[in-house]
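ok here's Monooxygenase:
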Amino acid sequence: MSPIPLNNATFSLLLGTFAHVSLLKNFELDTWIPLFFVTSLASLTSLIFYHVHYDALSPAATLFYTVKEATCFLLGVFTSMTIYRLFFHRIRHFPGPILARVTRFYNLYLSGKNVKYYDELDKLHNQYGDFIRTGPREISILRKSAVSLIYGPQSACLKSTWYSAVSNDSAKAQMFYSRDPVDHKRRRKAWDRAFSVKSLRTYAPLIRAKVEQLTSTLASSATAPKDATAWMMMLAFDIMGEVGYGQDFGGIDTGKEHPAAKAIHDHMTILSVVGTVPWLLYLLQFIPGASKGYAPFFKWSTGQIQGKKATWNPEKEPKDIASWLIKAVMEKDVSASPTTASLNDDGRLIIIAGSDTSASANACTLYYLASNPHILAKLQSRLDAAMPNGPQDWSYDSVASINYLDDVIKESLRLKPPVITGGYRVTPPEGLQVDEVYIPGDVNVIVPIQLIHTDKKYWKKPLDYIPERWGERKEELGTDETLFMPFSQGLTNLKAIGVYKCVGDKMAMISMRIAISSIVQQFDLRLASGETGEAFDKERKDAFTTVLKPLQLLFVPRKKFGKA
Ligand code: HEM
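and the structure:
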């Protein structure tokens, strides 16, 4: 029996085409994926019901016709989608690999291949130019003017669907995932308070205490090589424990990486690879056990937040980031996290955003200093000139006055930005004019951080580590600060601003100044025997943040201080 018309292959094919052209084409599938699945399930159930009751088909025939019709329907959808994306889409004129124009699964493949998406993107830019289509509605741009247009304070671009991959409901998620600009701006105020000048002043001594604990530990077994990657990770976690929650993670004490560190790396790798197809990442969390490795960290941070709430004292000034966020909730401030779930998620954001990034920045700076003895010696001489009696003279004010220290840190952030590629933004409905190129509205755009930092159009000796390019050789090397965006910032009058830029950028700089100055003041750094630094340099994983290979260094205590 061949019931008409529902089991008709042509009809199903046409229905699929019609569904794409009239409906799906206009939807942001990433945001509507639950509805899409419920509707698909309901349609399949109705089809089965129709075949059983109206066509009186046997179970085997019902299965056969349902599968056939569903397959034809999907064939219609995907054929229409492919033709549309290749020949009719508003960004069809942009060059890029053919598969990338059709599906984001191509990006998933590129990201997952070696988890070095920045390398893949570099190859694509070399092949196709400054503007490339890296997805059906996604463009990667390597142009200076795009930085402030997309990331600057006046930008009309919003956060892309990538940010709704973890949750479609921003009321239940951390501030970072809030795509509604009004909601984001409101919630960001509570975070801004946690990083005010006054708050930062209370964090600096906590950071210094952790760094001192590290330098004593390093000094106690000075002849043995140490894995700088692991120790910088322990330091960063311990700092974020103290500054974020007023808690000691005990990493430096025990010499063991906090279990949350591995969980966060795994989580970030999944986020960056699977997140290239945001709806897929969204679905992944419904697979039982998918976030098992992450559970202890969830439990710890939720316990901390809820514990602080339970013992809240309104008279006490907050001393850590979490307490600032809780204060907004307890005082029912407009900036407060809207739900318990979102506050708990904000609590996780503190550690995730602040630890990995700072650890990677410090480890990379130590790598460059150990590999460039003349730069290390110059930095030590500047530190010695400012603090002639060595560590006993150390003060943050002295350290902050040493421009060369900032130059060293900035050059590391340029060559090895901890957030390697960065976040996508969506163009406003009226589109975006970048130099001679018009990008239509509702298109995901990105300026890949590491690639713009090393673009030979804009940088002389782009791959060389030259801290002087930020100071005395600025003019000679033509350094343009507006191209420097490790915190996803756009610059205006050399002030780092941007609606979605890193809220912890100032704390990050303070933390790096304290860590690098203290270590370099007390130790000479050398690559340990057998360590070339090559794997560390070349094999970084792009897991949104960076996952670094081990780096074996010798921390040799310095005997003399004073002016060189
Ligand atoms: C060297 C260290 C750091 C680097 C390079 C860095 C980089 C970044 C970047 C690139 C973004 C924007 C990501 C995007 O566009 O999606 C960001 C956002 C953020 N960072 Fe950092 N970060 C660092 C340290 C920190 C620290 C210490 C904290 C403190 C908790 C922090 C907290 C945040 C938060 C909360 C956001 C989300 C901001 C928002 O969505 O409004 N970061 N960071």
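+1. The chain has a mean pLDDT of 90.
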